[in-house]
Amino acid sequence: MPAKTEIIPRRWERQKTESPIRLVLDPSHFKADNSAVALDVSLSGACVRTNLTLAPGDWVGVIPKGYFPQAIPGRVVWAREDEYSHWTFAGIEFIEDQLNKKAA
Q1: Beta carbons of 81 and 63 less than 8 angstroms apart
Q2: What percent of the residues of the chain are helix, what percent strand, and what percent coil, each to the nearest 5?
Q3: Confidence of residue 66 (pLDDT cuts 50, 70, 90)
Q4: Which secondary-structure segment (H or E) carries 93?
Q5: Which phi and psi (to 5°) does residue 90 adopt?
């Protein structure tokens, strides 16, 4: 008999999109992907497709093209590489303290 798993509801509704973004992994060494795409977004994070190699725990900056003058700080929660396309798909959690400071 399969074990019961608890389903935890999402904090925010996700919106499907294919919005171009710039993803910055290490600004001091110019590790950035100008061809990254946000596949869905919410107030707390985004699912992205990128050429960068990402791992859970990595800190990244997300810059929506044409909308914000600076990066939204985030942390990679999960990541996987598609073996055929070699794209990396990742879930990024926005860092709330920084978002709250920008909104104030």
Answers
A1: no
A2: 10, 50, 40
A3: confident
A4: strand 88-94
A5: -145, 150
Query: What tokens were used for 16?
Result: 């499907």
Q: Which residues contact 5 (CB under 8 A, 6 or more apart)?
A: none
Dig out the tokens for 2 from the structure: 């399969």
Instruction: Please report, as a single letter, which amino acid is at residue 52.
Output: L
The per-residue pLDDT for range 35-53, each reduced to its tens digit, is 999 999 998 999 999 999 9
The three-class DSSP label of residue 100 is helix
Distance in angstroms (rounded) separating the CA atoms of residues 2 and 96: 36
The beta strands (E) that lie in 27-82 are given as: 31-41, 45-50, 59-64, 72-81
| CA–CA distance, 72 with 80 (Å, rounded to integer) | 22
Structure token digits, residue 3: 């074990």
